[in-house]
Write a structure and sequence with these properties.
heterodimer; A: mainly beta; OB fold (Dihydrolipoamide Acetyltransferase, E2P); 6-stranded mixed sheet; 5-stranded mixed sheet; 9% helix; 47% strand; globular; B: alpha+beta; Four Helix Bundle (Hemerythrin (Met), subunit A); 5 domains; 42% helix
């Protein structure tokens, strides 16, 4: 239990940082499977508005979520420059639509700050903390909350 | 038992057990039906015996001792010392079930309730007859059961009979039996085979021990023995070979006519009981004589000469028959599934390639197109072949139901016979596995609620013993399983009254008999109290139905009062592919299963009436059916006003619901690979799965039942007359 890795001050979290709706977000790199360019999705009937549809990921059917819409930052008008981050959340493979992937960062645990109380509930619901790096504020997403724990239900 | 190799053996032992238990249950079923003969008893005996043998090798003591008890009684039955009474057969059935339990427990390394073993054991003892000593045999089992033990006493009888056997009567077979090491490692016992041979006629058995090396060079895991057997009598060769059928994969058997060996057996023949030192005689691989290894060849010649003098050179070549075991291999299902996935990918890639080539606008007859056609055909054949690997006969499932029936019959104090039909029909393994629960439920229902009490049956002029029939048959690309009983049928008045009491239907609803039957599938209909006093059925049938629907299956009921009830389940043969019509709807590409499509129509050529605001009805051949826009149904668009640019698909579901779906255009009819939506998403109403098209994009597969359910009511039932709450959840229709 006394391994250096377990010391919160020295333990670093590798995260993928990306931009959605003009804001910076990140989540644990261990959840990421791959990052792909935007491909047209097949629309699902009766789906939540933030579910863009499904894509074919080497033979698997993978739903794609519009993160911007999900986080309340407006519906994304997709173009070829958008990216889909393929992540595994609660055992399900999903695609997350983002504007651009910016960085892979190493964040020490103690650099992660709790969100101030004033922030609106909808944002708070999806964010587990914020990191300040070079004047940039990066919000750390709690993926298990972005994707409803009960799975993606049809509306 | 923890090394990898041993685990492999263990796994293959249990796989073998499955087959053996199946053979045993088969045999027991035959005997129960009165169709069994001596051979059937043999088969059962052999199955039990080899389970015992394998179990001994893995130190599964409980299994060994119970199998031994059962085997002892079977042996007595086989030798005609006891009679196959109905009671005995019932006992055998129960023992067979318990043996299955023991195997299951042993496989899971779980403890098993020893209670039944004692109870069944003492009943077996009682059944083994007045001179039966099953218990004694059991007590010896631990010492007695050594798979390598050669029971020399067994060979004595033939030896004696040989003495007064006139030489002139020598018509028969000469059999050379060479044991492979696997024979012993799988717990087989040559002496028992010879004993079985002796039941066919007088035998003389000699062991050829010439290959046995000196003790210092002896590898105890190898087999060094072969036997020469002379069998008198005109027993047909195939009957003789049947004796060895069971060991055909671990021993070589050569059989030829005896004429060439008509010389009287040399008194110095190596009769096992004489020449081999009794002290080491129990050990098959013991060196009987200290031969130097280099004299093996000569030695063998000597021995053979004594058993069978050299053939005259002029003699015609001896016809010999070698038993061919059916060639099978065991493969991990994971590997098969991986292969199936890959083949699915191959088919998709092939479609993508076709599409890309199509864009090149090549001339017809171009080599590329021809070769592509060949590739397409090959891919299709590979797919079919790979799918076939997953297919398994439905028989083990039915046999499992046999046990459910026996237990349900015992609990309800009814006499029930299971009849199986078409059990060789093959179904996808996953389908089979997921059928266990629903089928168990329905079979139990059939016994509990379907069949009447003995008294009621007799009063109705039926045999006291009820029968439940399980049948399977392939019908137009699907497999249809029927569970039928010869019970009292559904009491529709009671069902209706009950549904009214529960508020499932309004009191004035006009329902046809089949509508009333369909009420049984409604959630909320079944509840233990009412159903137990109801002569019909209904325990959790909605659950059964939804399980079947999840498999892409459909259920229906036919029932006649006083005659019985038939539940039919129609299932896809495989969960992997589907024949579909690719259509365009509101800019989306979707697939409609061909099985549901009755016909396609141009709206201009038929009459479409509008009833009320926006409700359209198609009038075709004197029937009316609702018209629904597929795009609007899925919320992709508003229903179009003008239909002339569209196409109508007339859909008929397995529950006889019909409707006409509006789509924009038909693209193509093709086989599509089914991909699960639920893995990464969730189930969607009206969508059964997804597939990947030639352009690499995903298309959704329409579930006709789900769509029609939202559009068309149960036939002949005005939607308005059914409680709206029920219709809301699609419960009445999707199931």
């Amino acid at each position: 239990m006394s391994q250096p890795d377990d010391d919160p001050k020295s333990r670093n979290n590798e995260v993928v940082a990306f931009r959605v709706g003009g804001q910076d977000f990140c989540f644990d790199i261990m959840s990421v499977r791959e990052i792909r360019g935007w491909t047209e999705t097949t629309t699902l009937p009766h789906a939540q508005s933030y579910v863009k549809g499904v894509i074919n990921l080497r033979g698997s059917v993978v739903p794609v979520l519009d993160l911007s819409d999900r986080l309340g930052l407006g519906v994304t008008e997709t173009n070829a420059r958008h990216v889909i981050i393929i992540a595994v959340v609660n055992g399900q493979t999903i695609g997350l639509l983002a504007d651009v992937v910016s960085d892979i960062l190493s964040i020490p645990d103690d650099a992660l700050h709790p969100i101030p109380d004033m922030v609106a509930d909808q944002v708070k619901a999806f964010i587990s903390g914020v990191v300040l790096i070079d004047e940039r504020m990066i919000r750390k997403l709690d993926l298990s909350r972005v994707v409803p724990p009960s799975g993606l239900e049809a509306a | 038992m923890t090394t990898g190799g041993s685990d492999d053996f263990r796994a293959s032992f249990f796989e073998e057990c499955d087959e053996l238990l199946e053979a045993m249950h088969d045999g027991l079923g035959l005997m129960q039906d009165g169709a069994g003969d001596t051979e059937t008893v043999h088969v059962i005996f052999r199955a039990v015996h080899s389970i015992k043998g394998g179990a001994g090798a893995f130190g599964l003591d409980a299994l060994v001792s119970f199998a031994h008890q059962l085997e002892t009684v079977l042996e007595r039955l086989r030798s005609g010392r006891i009679e196959a009474t109905p009671d005995l057969l019932t006992l055998f059935q129960q023992c067979g079930d318990y043996l299955s339990d023991l195997v299951t427990a042993a496989r899971a390394d779980a403890a098993v309730d020893p209670g039944p073993a004692e109870a069944l054991g003492s009943r077996l003892n009682a059944a083994s007859g007045p001179d039966g000593d099953a218990s004694e045999a059991v007590s010896q089992a631990a010492d007695d059961f050594v798979p390598l033990a050669l029971d020399l006493d067994a060979l004595e009888d033939p030896q004696e009979s040989d003495a007064d056997d006139p030489l002139s009567s020598r018509i028969g077979h000469h059999i050379t039996f060479t044991a492979e090491p696997e024979l012993f490692s799988s717990g087989n016992e040559p002496a028992l085979l010879f004993r079985a041979l002796a039941t066919l006629g007088p035998t003389r058995v000699g062991a050829d021990i010439s290959d046995v090396p000196p003790l210092s060079l002896l590898d105890p895991t190898m087999s060094h023995l072969s036997w020469e057997i002379e069998l008198d009598g005109d027993c047909p060769a195939d009957i003789v070979l049947d004796v060895f059928d069971f060991v055909s994969d671990c021993a070589s058997v050569e059989i030829g006519p005896l004429e060439h060996f008509a010389a009287p057996p040399d008194p110095s023949t190596v009769p096992a009981s004489d020449d081999i030192d009794p002290a080491i005689g129990t050990d098959v691989v013991a060196p009987a004589e200290g031969r130097p290894p280099n004299s093996e060849t000569e030695g063998r010649g000597d021995d053979l000469a004594r058993v069978a003098p050299p053939k005259p050179t002029a003699a015609p070549p001896q016809p010999t028959t070698r038993i061919a075991a059916p060639q099978t291999i065991r493969v991990d299902f994971e590997r098969v599934d991986k292969l199936i996935n890959l083949v699915g990918e191959l088919v998709i890639k092939e479609a993508m390639l076709s599409q890309a080539v199509g864009m090149l606008t090549l001339n017809t007859g171009n080599e590329v197109l021809q070769e592509l056609d060949g590739l397409k055909q090959l891919a299709g054949e590979i797919q079919e072949g790979v799918m076939a690997i997953r297919a398994q006969p439905i028989k083990p499932l039915f046999q499992r139901m046999g046990r459910t029936i026996r237990e349900a019959a015992a609990m309800t104090n009814k006499r029930v016979r299971l009849v199986m039909k078409g059990e060789a029909a093959e179904v996808d393994k996953t389908v089979l596995e997921r059928l266990v629960d629903p089928l168990t439920h329905m079979v139990r229902n059939a016994v509990d609620h379907g069949l009447e009490d003995k008294e009621a049956r007799v009063a109705a002029g039926k045999p006291a013993e009820g029968s439940v029939t399980l049948s399977a048959a392939h019908r137009s690309g699907r497999v249809v399983i029927e569970i039928s009983d010869d019970g009292g049928g559904i009491n529709r008045d009671k069902v209706r009254r009950l549904a009214e009491e529960k508020g499932l239907i309004p009191p004035d609803a006009s329902l046809s008999p089949s509508d009333i039957d369909a009420l049984l599938f409604m959630p909320g209909f079944s509840s233990k109290d009412e159903v137990s006093e109801l002569s019909g059925r209904g325990v959790g049938l909605d659950v059964v139905r939804s399980e079947i629907t999840a498999l892409g299956g459909r259920m229906s009921i036919q029932s006649e009062l006083g005659v019985g009830t038939v539940f039919s389940i129609s299932l896809p043969l495989t969960l992997a592919v589907l024949e579909g019509m690719v259509v365009n709807v509101a800019g989306q590409t979707m697939v409609v299963p061909i099985t549901a499509i009755q016909e396609t129509l141009q709206p201009a050529s038929v009459r479409i009436h509008t009833i009320g605001p926006g409700t359209k009805v198609l009038s075709i051949r004197d029937t009316l059916m609702p018209v629904a826009d597929l795009g609007a149904h899925f919320g992709f668009r508003e229903p179009p006003e003008e239909l002339d640019d569209h196409v109508l698909l007339v859909i008929e579901t397995d529950t006889d619901r019909r409707c006409a779906l509006i789509v924009d255009a038909l693209q193509d009819q093709r086989q599509v690979v089914i991909k699960s939506l639920e893995t990464n998403y969730s189930q969607i109403d009206g969508i059964s799965a997804a597939t990947i098209l030639g352009d690499g994009r995903i298309a959704l597969i329409v579930d006709p039942e789900g769509v029609a359910g939202g559009v068309a009511p149960v036939p002949a039932t005005p939607a308005a007359s059914v409680n709206p709450d029920v219709v809301e959840g699609d419960s009445l229709v999707t199931a």
